[in-house]
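On to my pick:
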Amino acid sequence: MGAERGAAGRHRVRAAPRPAAVGAAPAGLRIRVSLRDRNESEYLADLLQDHGLAVRVALPDEDERGGDEQPAANEIVVSQELVAGLIPAARRGDTPLIVPTDRPAAPPVGGPGEEQVPQPGRLTMHDLDAVARRLVATIQRRVERNRRGLAQLALEDEDIFDDVAVQQSAGRRLRLVGREGVLVCLRVSELGRVRERLGAQATWELVGRIRDVTVTELGLARPPAPRSNGELLWVLPAAPAARARKQLEQLGAALASRSVTVTAGDAEEHLRITPAIGLVGVGRTDPAVLISRARAAAATAASRLDLEPCTWEPSGEPAEMPAEMPAGAGALLGAPFVAGAPFVAGSPSGAPSGFDGPFGAPSGEVAAGLGGFSTGAGAGAGAAVAAWRTARRWIGSTAAQALLSVVLAVGLPYLYYTLTAQFGVDVLGPAYAFIVLALVATAGSIYVEGLLALDPVRPPALPPGDPPPATVIIAAYLPNESATIIDTLEAFLRLRYAGPLQVILAYNTPHALPVESVLQAMAHEHPRLVVLRVPGSTSKAQNVNAALEIATGHFTGVFDADHHPAPDSVTRAWRWLADSYDIVQGHCVIRNGGASWLSRMVAVEFESMYAVGHPGRAKLHGFGIFGGSNGYWRTDILRRVRMRPRMLTEDIDSSVRSLLAGVRIASDPALLSFELAPTTLRALTRQRLRWAQGWFQVSRKYFGMALASPVLNRRQKAGAAFLFGWRELYPWISIQIFPLLGYLLLHPEPGQGVHWAMPFFLFLTLVTMGVGVAQSLFAYLLAHPDVRRRRRWFLVYALFAGFFYTEYKNGLARVAQIKEIGGERQWRVTPRQVPVPSPAYRRESA
């Protein structure tokens, strides 16, 4: 008996026996058809039943009621989106027949005997027949290719399976030369909010536009396959890893920099998106596992919001699971995610579970288990393991690394001089000349910067007309800033700006704090203030990136949570950005200089940095540097560049990436903001170690790229070579005078070596000791009035810098380089002192 259809087209399931199934479906497998229209769902269910599949119908609104309609573990859901992807391309043409929509389906167009024209959201029976055939074929292929369980059976990934198989068939030869196919997953952080606010039709329109941009930017032969959750999956053909990463970085920047238009009802919405890209080398791993890994990497990239592709990499260490990963995924993935690292294919490598030490040193649990064979042997093994761990902790300590830096910087050169003298080779003269020239050249650059800073570049005049909307972002780790954050917000709310101004406090905290209720009350009282808690954030970079999603300003200022900007600072920043500049860095003034002797020295040092060094170096090198706070960006550029949480100095990293993209950065010593300085040597040491290591991290990554950049001119390349090359070598060169003079004192030989007690040595001493005095003098001449009136601070700093502080910072730079080369990267919070109102700030506010 055939199917019976009424006037309304309603379908009733056949009562006659079904034909024999084509192939064998797995035991327990169930199909749930969940289209928006019940007639279509029942018709498709009948077709699938004809092939021997267990099918039931449950509409989407029935699923939401819960109960028996919850999806089962061995159940495949045939949704509207899945059906849309299974319509043959010949039927679709360029425009899919299936347009997911929240509106009720309209009746077909056309009278009796005429061809039925499908309406948006409505399927023709011809389409459903084709969908049923493809579903059955897909299920059979997947069952044959994946017999390990129904949990990994995903119909929408069938095309991805085929593409992965093609790349895996290329064999081991391409992987040996660094060319490997890559499975990519792209997700959009804002997709859930778009679905809630604008509905499913706008959501899938957004996914379609993202897919179009992806095809255009990457030149894909076939569009990526959209998953039912809006993610895009595709396979990049075998190519060098660096090229693949660069293509994906450019894709992320292109998506983030443009506004995507979607239709919502009768209006259009312009959306900004934050793409998150995860990738994994195809290797020889099962495709279902590869898809899970790519999705997990994309989830990790989404938590960072920095537009940097995140690579899944095998490792012997347990994975830190993203918050959005399902339960049990850790066993499937078994590896962490690495941003900016090369591809590594194959199974997880490294020490087996239970061996966490280098060279396979057993962990405490394994050692205790081995001790069961012999009581004495077990005790000895446990003591050995404890001793090894103690030694390991000491080797990784800052004190041990400082001792190692002294051995490398002083001990090895002294040994070299001794050995060369044993063989009759005199290297003292050339070494001495090189050291002198190095010190003199560095001192000369400092003098030139100071002289250029005496006449800084001034901002253009304020352009006519109303200024555009502006945003300032305050990034805060709230447990460290709870004592200062209220004063900070009050200072920002006093800003004077003629245009619309948005103040965003983007903070993270591991636990709730009482001050949060005060912050919410302030946000209700002040319409300009937006308080944004960033869940899952562990860094300033993530807080800034999250705030960019809601930023409305044409330009955006970035501040740390201890800053109090001058009331006219936003207006002054706009004068720069309205002209030809893209970023402007201001002058940070210490407002708690009287708190301790150390904060007084830091106050003078900051004047030397921001009133002298930054503007002078900008004139000398042809570019400025964004220093992390009191800096203003064009918002579109900041959205494209973002800040990367894995970089210790995310500000310098974003500055250099901007420079390499052709962005202009100005330095304005009159663009003021007042901040807190560390008041203890321990806090200062932690802060400067992180700064030094972050600079070295950036220098290693971008030194070669800057010299080869087609964007930078010769003057800028020379400046980049000085900042990223010579600046990192100088801490090792400046100390070389000590092993050289030590050898001459301990091995005096008349008529040989360097006659160091001569005018040349005296000149060297004068130059090296004069740098601190010159820096103090320039800082005094250009300092903010509140600091300049403390003349005694500058006199003490001149002696302090010459005899102690300069070598203190050079020593920290050497230790920081050892930490970076050893892979030790730990971000330490700088504790805040309770704020002290600055007299200068009170005058600026008045």
Observations:
- The mean pLDDT is 78.
- DSSP finds 31 helices and 19 strands in the chain.
